[in-house]
Amino acid sequence: MPSPRNENVVFAAVVSSIAAVAAVPIALVIALSGGGTTVVLAALFALVPVGPLVACYLWLDRYEPEPRSLLVTGLAWGAFVATLLALVLQGLGGLVAGFTDTERLSLVAPITEEATKGLFLVLLLVWRRNELDGVLDGIVYAGMVGIGFAFTENILYLAAAYNGTDGAGPGGIEELGFTFVLRCIASPFAHPLFTAFTGIGVGIAITSRSRVVRVLAPFLGYCVAVLAHALWNSSTLLADGAGFFAVYAIVMVPVFVTLTFLAVWARSREARILQGALADAALRGLLPYDDIPHLVNLGARRRARQFARVHGGPDGLAAMRSYQQAAIELAFLHHRFLRGTAPRNFSARGQGFVDRMQAARPYISFPGAHGRVLR
Fold it and tell me: What are the TM regions of this chain, as residue ranges (predicted)?
């Protein structure tokens, strides 16, 4: 049976290859949006919100950090694959159905863009569902895809604003600055927010006992994502654009705040899930009960790693990281077992985590404990 890490590498390699192919036409589209100076300037401005947004999602993902390769793959999917597929679908729809600009903005764009972004989450659900433990994971992966998509889209919008080809003004640095404030400062969360609804649906599907819910939840999440996106886009058509600010203040900000609270609540809920699952696992003899605080409490986890590095050097730190990571993954898997939603390969995966823990445990010692450490 291939290891989860090897399967993650294969998944990341395949999806990254697709993204690399999609990056070529996207690069051509960006290059055609303006001269070299314009594109570079637009890309630099579009890059500004990326770092803070990624940092926020990594903060949410601290209990069981998702594989960095998959998170980067999600960013690449959003930036290249989802963007390219959306452009192609919208272009074909315009040629075949003859959509007006209003229809394309308020209907076609939300449907196609949320579908192409959500496709990455569907691939995870089908191919790498073992990496999804619940709603928070769905939000994190959705956020990465949304950030990547927004980055590429912002380059195009910013370049058009600078060139004066967006129909909003004569162009230049003032128009670029206005678009930057509107898209990169005031609403950088838009695309991650929309796709989060699909991510929530995928997270619900992973943890549900009901087969109907497992099928319907991702689809309903996608539908809500489309509705939110359509409302956002349509608001720019109301009252000569003034409706955008009303929808922004009355609808989008409260929705964003609500989803933020949901994500933070889900993060704190993970601590309770881990505590309960590891306590039950300890009763079954899978790990020492006294280890649990150093696995669940984020501050204690960090201090344990510092202790391991001081007393065991790089090897001791590596052993501690391996033990903590395997224990957390075991906890989420054991929680699903206790809920009756364990995957079919539950026993093999669980035994693999236990084996990793047992291999590392003799070489680590927690602060305040006495044990063997690497020298």
Answer: 9-33, 39-60, 72-99, 139-160, 180-205, 212-232, 244-265
